[in-house]
Amino acid sequence: MIWAVLSLIALLAALWLALPFLRKRQMETLESDSILSVYRDQAEEVERDLESGMITEAEFDAAQAEIEARTLKAARRMDSGLSVSGQMPVMAGSIIAFTLAAGLAAYSQLGRPQIPDMALADRKEEVLIRRAEGGDIKSRITLLEEATEETPDDFDTWWMLARSYASIEEHAGAAEAYKHAARLSNDNPGVLSAYAEALTQANGNKVPPAARIVFEQVLRESEVPDPRARYYVALAKAQAQDFDGALHDWAMLAADSKPSDPWMGMVRRDIVNMVKFTEGDVLNYLPNASDEEIIASGGEVKPPDTGAMAARIVDLQIALDADPKNWEGWMEMAELQAVLGMTDAARATIETGKSHFEAAPFVLQQFDTALAILDGEERRGPDAEDIASAQEMTAEEQADMVDGMVAGLALRLEEDPDDVAGWVMLIRSYDVMGRADRAEAAYDTAANFFADRPEDLRAIRLETGYGAN
Amino acid sequence: MLKFLCSALVALTLATPAFSINPGEMFEDPAQEARAREIGRQLRCMVCQNQSIFDSNAGLANDLRVLVRERMLEGDTDDEVLSYVADRYGDYVLLEPTKSAKNAILWLTPAGALIFGLLGFALYIRQRKEPQAVEALTDADRAAAKHLLKQRDSKP
Amino acid sequence: MYAEIGHFALILALVAAVLQSVIPIWGVRAENAAAMRFADNAAQIQFLGVAVAFAMLTRAYVVSDFSLVNVAMNSHSAKPMLYKVTGVWANHEGSMLLWVLILTLFGVLISIFGRSVPVTMRSVVLAVQAMIGVAFLLFILLTSNPFDRLPNPPLDGQGMNPLLQDIGVALHPPLLYLGYVGFSTAFSFAVAALVRGQVDPSWARWMRPWVLLAWAGLTAGIALGSWWAYYELGWGGFWFWDPVENASFMPWLLGTALLHSAIVVEKRASLLAWTILLAILTFALSLIGTFLVRSGILSSVHAFANDPERGVFILLILCIAIGGALTLFAARTNKLTEGGYFAMVSREGGLLLNNVLLSAATAIVFVGTLYPLALELVTGDKITVGAPYFNQAFLPVFGFAMMFAAIGPFLSWKRANKTRAARLTTLAAVTTATLGVVIIAIFGVPDVVSLFGIAVALFLAVATLIDLGQRIGIGKSPFATSLRRMVGLPRSAWGLYLGHLGLAIAAAGVVAAGLWKVEEIQVTQIGTPVSVGAYEFTLTGVESAKGPNYQSSLATVTVTRGGDFVTNLHPERRWYPVEKKPTTEAGIVTVWHGDYYAVLGDPAAAGGFVTRYYYNPGVPWMWLGAVIMTLAGLISLADRRLRVGVPSAQRRLAAQPAE
């Protein structure tokens, strides 16, 4: 194919080259003719110069004589006449043959006819695949996007596309893809819930009404309540100032979940933060709250109830005497003893426990770990820190959450400004967030509204410390 | 006193020197600064194409500028600064080549070219003798020539 | 397949060039009309071949076909389309292809528009042109082939130096080559004349338009390159005397001489041998420039010695072309019969003297450019020849050339009226002195060199205007008559006046820029004014912006004078992530007397930004002068006289019945 095209091009070029030798008869002009026309023009110019008075008569004559001498010289040297030529088929044939042969031969040496053009646009697929293989999510997304165009009814493609978007925090793109996936899955609650979550994240972690409706629909329709939906419905409540409702829902979710469930970190964290905001008692919602959580929620850690602990030790002793094959019992007893400061007793308990499990390497290992902890830091559990760090929100997440709640409050006050406590809370929140400008703006808005109710305004002023001057 | 030197050294350690001259390295006295620039314009940035160190933002140029100012603070005259730098970095840094034997051809070129050209011009003009007379054309010749020149008029 | 078609077209161009350099010469010897005519057809195929190759390479850049090594090495898919296209010639292979494209373009133009040139001459000219074509096409195909392929192309290209991603530098090579390569026509005409042993006024007239075109292109190209350096390098300088610049400046100087000596040949049939020699040497300088830039010898003599393939090839071309032409010149020059006599004080004498001065100036630039290379090759010593040398050696000679350019037009052909010339010269000198005193009174006494510069520029401008006034009889005849005469002036006369005026304006700009430039470098806080001469520059804000393939900090600098708003400047600092290189884009606003110029640097450690502020008076005059000179060349090109001489006999003979 390429050789045909190249040969055709070469042939056309060769024909054009040979054309002068294929013409029947041609003449060329006398060279002196061209020369004479130049001198003719020079003579005319000199005449014009004379007419316009730029040269004198004498100068004109001299110039004229010079031009005439030149003219005669050219005319005398004049060539024999025309150069004429007729058709020269042999010459033409040679030129055509030479052009074709030389051109194609040189190309076969230099060219790479087997390599096709590879414009980037045509290589898009290849480029994307190579990039996606290299772990480039964006290329993967482009590939999946294309796949969804080809097979718009394939659930898996949409689902993977949504997941890919979510992994690079393109929440809007993820929401759009989840929407298609949800449609194709006949509104499978899990997919719907993922969709609504993406909507929420795309909205800066504030649950939009549409997402809340979807979450609530999911909760209504699924047999086992979807924990994600439960979590977000609670978040929506929090963002709509229903703090008690939110805390209640989260507490229920925490109670229904295993401590190892992946969402528990988020739930515990939110409960702690919310409690801190409402100044409640975290143990009401998280009975097993750790000391760190209690402190983070603004509560105080009660000293351990030594009496109850001692009683429990006695109970355990009785139970273990009856059934020593309960290693968790041994561990609990050692732990309680350690907490009460009876370190030696705790060691003894563990050694006794070990003696009952000599054939169980896993259990022995647990005991050894406990011993190591006893010998090292007396009290702290091995994963207390991990829990704490899991519960710690990043500053950004925390700010997001507080922002969401404050924004909700501000919105509500805009619709219904007749709420002294609400204003106080809003202004204080801004103040705590370090947004004095907003706090002042909020105070001004409130002052406008309460202009004819000086007592209320005074209350706000006293409570917040704003508007003093 | 050496404040500018310190900041210049700091600037050196940065990855991207932004500018041919950093304000930090400059003298506060305008006259001294002008002198520094005058010297700088005669030194070549070694990694550039014929740019002076005051026109280049390469790190090496910066290095040389600091050196120039350092020498000036030591009380060197302009020529002393230039020869100090040339001793350390070679004649290559001097934008104006030294007027030494090895550069004789270079420095003799301008005068040589001019003298050679003017001499040629004079000789050319002289050797051309005024022709006895312009080869006098006979009247017949002139008529023939005029005929040739007018030919076009006769043609349609 | 497109890329391979381009490659094949380039090979076909070579085949056509080979035929074109042989057959027409045989045709002239054998007086065979068809073989002479063949030169036209071959020139067309040669051009078409190179044009197709160039188009295909451009296509590869546009669609980012990285299976071409050249594209993969020099382009990037994220580049803006404009710079994808201009990237074609921003690298060695592509620029050589552009070189040959322009060479063949001149060939095809001669084959089409050179009909006034008799075919006996034209075919030899085209044959010589084709020999150059053969040499450079071989060079491209064997050492610098832009169509080398990669079977497994990379995902993306290597990018392009961001400094080159600029409209000024993008258009610079085509214009420069138009001049550079355009002088090949002068070479070909000269060699053709030597081959045929015949030089006469008509020859000069046939050659002249091609030299004019090349000269105008080179003028514009040099100015554009200088303009690019001025605003892209970011310190207000415009000419470095670096070897690459000199490489384009030397053919310009000698080409200017050629342009003037060709006038003498045309008018008086004198200076024949000299003009031929100039034509050969001008193109020789173009070839030397190509060698300097393309062999890599400038960056390092050692790099050249280690990878000499390309450099040696060009050097070989250079030696054969120039050596051959000069040998031919030596053999034939005694056969040239010099024409009309002229006195020393005459137009011819003035033009010749000017030629001598321009040639001396060229020799100075030549030695200054090549001396360091020669010295390093011979002794191993490395020296630099920079601006101080050229300012001392070149400027005085060029200044004198400008002064003679002022006086020359006062002299009439053959033997000048000395009284008249002296009277006009005195008038010009007195006017210049008066104006000079006014300038000194306003601006103060400058240094001697600047004073000389001002005097020369003023003198040239004044003398040129006086000559124009004389020519149209101002003061002697009614104003209306003068005006009518002015309109009726031949275009070549306008070429003279505008060319000389343009030079005077440009020179005035250069002097003013050197003399009155104000420069302030400092760390500025936003809102704090800095005084720059009579002006205050205030950095009013810096914003981040995103370009097509770069990030940038865009500043606004407000210029005021005595509190009155003058203008806003927008200097920019760009970062090209692909190439990992920063560039500065100066913020420039041009007014009639100069440029306000601001450059933004890095943020300073202690807050604020490093800034450089300039007031550059006269700089716009340089560009204006260059534009006027270019226009002067083009206007001359449009002169009626350059179009006459289309043989009328042909029609007459063609109308005769066949025998």
DSSP summary, beta strand count of chain A = 2
Multimerization status:
heterotrimer
- Compute the CA-based radius of gyration of chain C: 27 Å
| Relative strand content of chain A | under 5%
The fourth-level CATH homologous superfamily of the domain at 137-296 in chain A is Tetratricopeptide repeat domain
Mean pLDDT of chain C: 87
Q: Please identify, by name, the CATH architecture of the domain at 137-296 in chain A.
A: Alpha Horseshoe
**Count of distinct structural domains of chain C:** 3
How are strands sequenced across the largest beta sheet of chain A? 1-2
The secondary-structure class of chain C comes to alpha+beta
β-sheet strand percentage of chain C = 5-15%
Overall outline of chain A: elongated
Largest interface: A-C, 67 and 78 residues
Q: Could you walk me through the main structural features you see in this protein, from its secondary elements to its overall organization?
A:
The complex is a heterotrimer of chains A (469), B (156) and C (659). Chain A is mainly alpha-helical and 469 residues long. Among the domains of chain A are: 137-296, Tetratricopeptide repeat domain (Serine Threonine Protein Phosphatase 5, Tetratricopeptide repeat, Alpha Horseshoe), CATH 1.25.40; 306-382, Alpha Horseshoe (Serine Threonine Protein Phosphatase 5, Tetratricopeptide repeat); 395-464, Serine Threonine Protein Phosphatase 5, Tetratricopeptide repeat (Alpha Horseshoe), CATH 1.25.40. Chain A contains 23 helices and two strands. By secondary structure, chain B is mainly α. Chain B folds into two domains: 3-93, Helicase, Ruva Protein, domain 3; 101-154, no CATH class. Chain B has six helices and no strands. Mean pLDDT of chain B is 72; it is low at 1-19. Chain C has helices at residues 2-30, 33-62, 69-74, 81-86, 92-113, 119-143, 167-180, 183-196, 201-232, 243-268, 272-295, 301-306, 309-332, 347-379, 387-407, 418-443, 448-471, 479-488, 491-516, 619-637, 649-655; strands spanning 518-524, 529-532, 535-546, 551-561, 564-569, 572-576, 581-585, 587-591, 594-603, 609-617. In chain C, the strands form two sheets. In chain C, strands 2, 3, 4, 5, 6 and 7 form a six-stranded antiparallel β-sheet that branches. A four-stranded antiparallel β-sheet of chain C has the order 1-10-9-8. Chain C is globular, with a radius of gyration of 27 Å. Chain C starts with a helix and ends with a helix. Mean pLDDT of chain C is 87; it is low at 645-659. Chains in contact: A-B, A-C, B-C. The interface between A and B is medium-sized, with 14 and 12 residues.
